[in-house]
Amino acid sequence: MRKMIKPCGLHCIKVKHLGVTLGSQVILEDINLHIHCGSLNAVIGRNGAGKSTLIRAVLGEMAHTGNIEFKDRENGRIQKMKIGYVPQSLNVEKQTPVSVYDMIASYQSSAPVFLRKSRKVKEKILEHLSIFQAEHLLDKQVCNLSGGELQRVLLSMAVMDSPNLLLLDEPVSGMDQNGMELFYRTIYQLKEAYDLAVILISHDLEYVRKYADKVILLDKTVLKQGSVKEVFQSREFAGVFHTGEEPFMKQEGSRQEPEAVSGVCQSDVNGNKS
Questions:
Q1: What are the structural domains, with CATH classification, of the chain?
Q2: 3-class secondary structure for the chain?
Q3: What is the pLDDT of residues 77-117, one digit of tens each?
């Protein structure tokens, strides 16, 4: 992936008055968001709030009203976004004899992967698998991967082509506690190191509290957006999650920086790696 020297200082993605209607049913209405470069944006809300629909609309998979714009970090011009995406789940035929290498390489090469294994492609795949500590899965059959292993492979694929925006639809489903912690720490450091904008759908409020830069509380429209503290201590949050008068926040003050994950380059504003 590209290594940014310093943050862009401008919003990357601007969603203006987005709406989605299926038949006579309003799924999303008047969604307005600014998603900044180098930020982890967690979308939370009850089931049926329209979270996955928002992801699909941004991907261009669902017809919508309103506009979605990406502004170039160099000159502020609107351009086409390069998007990485990890779905909540992927249906894999149990009888399909496809290795992790074969699956990823098929997206990286125009030539049939069964003809020969490219050393260059293999090195690139291993490099990105290692970010999520999944390089040992290279020759494993995809149908034999656990849910957590498959998600780590999909995450590696999603960041392989240096996206401007990473969309994650409940990507930790199937992961154990250690896998979830590794995932959130890695995503946090990826967005820091590569100035990557991330939109993450999550039901794991404790991890959202710990790692998110911005929280978007959704229920067909944006009920509340802002910092973790602003959203988690809001009346809107209490109404959705029935927390009553007691705020969800467990800690006041600044959050501790997550420990570094092997394979993720950390860069300061002067471009120095640590």
A1: 11-241 (3.40.50.300)
A2: CCCCCCCCCCEEEEEEEEEEEECCEEEEEEEEEEEECCCEEEEECCCCCCHHHHHHHHHCCCCCEEEEEEECCCCCCEECCCEEEECCCCCCCCCCCCEHHHHHHHHHCCCCCCCCCCHHHHHHHHHHHHHCCCHHHCCCEHHHCCHHHHHHHHHHHHCCCCCCEEEEECCCCCCCHHHHHHHHHHHHHHHHHHCCEEEEECCCHHHHHHHCCEEEEECCCEEEEECHHHHHCCHHHHHHHCCCCCCCCCCCCCCCCCCCCCCCCCECCCCCEC
A3: 656 778 999 887 776 666 678 899 988 988 876 666 666 67
